[in-house]
């Protein structure tokens, strides 16, 4: 089974508690609380040269899920074993 990492937005403590209880004994699942206090800065203008990497796109996807859902799930090689 691929490992899973649940990242829970810092203001969703009830969801964090629920997921921690539900998956606390599963060695392939880790639940963490997002420790960032502020949103990541967004550039007003795109960079002159395209420098995006898959990692930064994935991070933006995770940030978006945290904002919209209060939760992001990372699967596979991106999650701890």
Q: What does this protein look like?
A:
- The protein has 81 residues and is an alpha+beta fold.
- It has one domain (4-36, 53-78).
- It is built from 2 helices and 3 strands.
- Strands 2-1-3 form a 3-stranded mixed sheet.
- Strand 1 (4-8), helix 1 (13-23) and strand 2 form a beta-alpha-beta unit.
- The longest helix is centred in the last third of the chain and has 16 residues, at 54-69.
- The chain starts with a strand and ends in a 6-residue tail after the last strand.
Q: What would you report as the Rg, rounded to the nearest angstrom?
A: 15 Å
Name the strands of the widest sheet in spatial order: 2-1-3
Number of strands: 3
For the biggest sheet, the summary is:
3 strands, mixed
Total individual domains? 1
């Amino acid at each position: 089974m691929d490992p899973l990492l649940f990242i829970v937005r810092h203001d969703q403590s009830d969801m964090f508690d629920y997921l921690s209880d539900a998956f606390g004994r599963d060695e392939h699942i880790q639940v963490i609380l997002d420790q960032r206090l502020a949103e990541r800065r967004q550039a007003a203008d795109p960079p002159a040269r395209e420098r995006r990497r898959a990692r930064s796109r994935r991070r933006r996807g995770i940030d978006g899920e945290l904002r919209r859902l209060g939760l992001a799930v990372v699967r596979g090689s991106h999650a701890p074993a």
